[in-house]
Here is the input.
Amino acid sequence: METPTAPKSSFSIARLLPLLIFAGVLVAFFALGLNKYLTLDLLKENREVLKNWVHANKTEAVLLFITAYILVAAFSLPISSLVSITGGFLFGSVFGAAWGVIGATIGATILFLVAKTALGDPLRQRFGAQVKSLEDGFRANAVSYMLLLRLVPLFPFWLVNLAASFTGVSAVTFLVTTFIGIIPGAFVFASIGNGLNALFEAGEQPDLSLVSLLSRPDFYVPIVGLVVLSLIPIVYRAVFAKKQA
Here is the structure.
């Protein structure tokens, strides 16, 4: 007597569906050229419309922004910095960072949970080599290592999400350390967005290049913050290498 195969097929489809959705969103994002279309220039050109709409629909604007960040983090779209800057532009440094942290934390946690279930096996096969270098740290002290990887951008945000899911980090540990660890970086990018807002409100049309930004006093703090954040991995690796030697 043959064993029914329908349940196995149904289960396989159920496991495959999240992977298809994930891949579909990434393909659509690049196929539509959104990575080239969504830029600071677009923000500059539509600043008045955006500011007026946010002022008239504050609650909806906050919910929409958080939802957008959730999607960006969950699907690992390469526009998180732009979204963070937009948050500072629309809501100010403090609230822009706050809404960004909430959205990024929820989105990262969604990817973390999905990777522990439906997407686990194919993602392990695809990124197993990259994750292997993180395994010892997670198993030694998950809380400290997660905080380190969130505060210090040693590895891409999405890779940390996957590595944590593969190495047995609990959902609570992941959520709490992610929320706390990304606050400094979120505030830096939101501050840059808030600085852009001040320039636009003054009626100026600034060059958004780094040289131009450095010429503005209101950009000094966030730019210095970005420099510090970018130097931390270099310092960390140098110290670690010296200890190993």
Observations:
- Confidence is low (pLDDT under 50) at residues 5-11.
- Residues 6-31 form the longest helix (26 residues).
- The two ends are 65 Å apart (CA to CA).
